[in-house]
């Protein structure tokens, strides 16, 4: 063990938030059971987007952070002026002199109005371009500050780089927590808390020839969804980690809260996968389904139809320290 504490990318769900979420879902189920709902095309599309987000979040093209370039460039400022476009538009307005024809036709006022509108449009475009350029410069400078720590494989710096890269923003709605651990100096492990089974969809919306219909999902269908979601999430987390650090492989341990559990002690490891950097570089994740891809990488899990994911022993892969405290004590 390195002795360094884990670094947080996404804070784990609190006991209060978990209990509140369950109460809200129970209330929603009771309301759905006693009301007649008319499904719409909008409902179908929303369910399709949700399903895709849960099961295809791994379908991205990996792009490694170019630390050499960042260090070589040093601190940067936005590459454009704040008024790059509006300055030219204002100049045209201030330099406008009505011609004799403009005066004869009485279009001077209209032309000034058009030029003023162009100034306003250019100012809006400038604001958008400046905001984008400033965000890019800020991202570069924040990564620059973190670069030495990331290269030294310091978990706090790595977690910081993941946040800068937008990992927390991109994943916070489909995971319950994400931390980075370093069991040994050269071994990096991401521990991700999956959505609990109760939080997964329990119905779907299908479009027919003339109308759409809400259909409940069977336990087996939800178990399939949980498996695919878990595999997709751990692959995405591995991708994000390997885009930031230069190591031979990254490991991901996925946990899920046991049914009825509320505390950290109720979090059970259910999936472990080791993703070699060389293998990831060859994978075309956009074309691969999550389950087969995780299986090809040798993912360890305990899954049964109708029951979903069950706890696994991560002590066998030397990660016992990542288990919940009460389980370790046992």
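^ structure tokens above, recovered residues below v
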């Amino acid at each position: 063990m390195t002795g360094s504490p884990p670094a947080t990318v996404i804070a784990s769900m609190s006991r209060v938030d978990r209990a509140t979420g369950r109460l809200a879902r129970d209330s929603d189920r009771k309301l759905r059971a006693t009301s007649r709902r008319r499904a719409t095309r909008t409902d179908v599309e929303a369910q399709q987007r949700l399903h895709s987000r849960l099961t295809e979040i791994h379908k991205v093209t990996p792009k490694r952070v170019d630390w050499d370039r960042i260090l070589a460039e040093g601190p940067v400022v936005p590459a454009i002026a704040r008024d790059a476009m509006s300055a030219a538009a204002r100049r045209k307005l201030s330099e406008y002199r009505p011609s004799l024809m403009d005066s004869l036709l009485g279009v001077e006022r209209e032309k000034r109005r058009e030029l003023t509108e162009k100034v306003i449009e250019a100012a809006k475009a400038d604001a958008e371009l400046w905001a984008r350029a400033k965000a890019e410069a800020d991202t570069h400078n924040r990564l620059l500050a973190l670069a030495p720590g990331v290269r030294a494989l310091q978990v706090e710096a790595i977690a910081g780089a993941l946040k800068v890269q937008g990992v927390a923003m991109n994943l916070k709605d489909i995971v319950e927590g994400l931390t980075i651990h370093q069991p040994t100096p050269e071994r990096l492990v991401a521990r991700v808390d999956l959505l609990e089974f109760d939080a997964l969809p329990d119905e779907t919306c299908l479009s027919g020839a003339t109308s759409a219909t809400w259909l409940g999902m069977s336990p087996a269908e939800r178990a399939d969804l949980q498996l695919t979601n878990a595999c997709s999430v751990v692959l995405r987390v591995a991708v994000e980690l390997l885009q930031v650090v230069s190591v031979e492989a990254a490991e991901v341990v996925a946990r899920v809260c046991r049914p009825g559990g509320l505390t950290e002690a109720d979090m059970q490891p259910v999936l472990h996968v080791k993703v070699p950097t060389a293998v990831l570089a060859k994978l075309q994740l956009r074309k691969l389904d999550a389950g087969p891809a995780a299986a090809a990488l040798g993912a360890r899990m305990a899954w049964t139809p109708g029951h979903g994911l069950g706890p696994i022993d991560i002590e066998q892969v030397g990660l016992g320290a990542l288990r919940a405290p009460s389980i370790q004590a046992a």
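Residues 187 and 250 are 7 Å apart (CA to CA).
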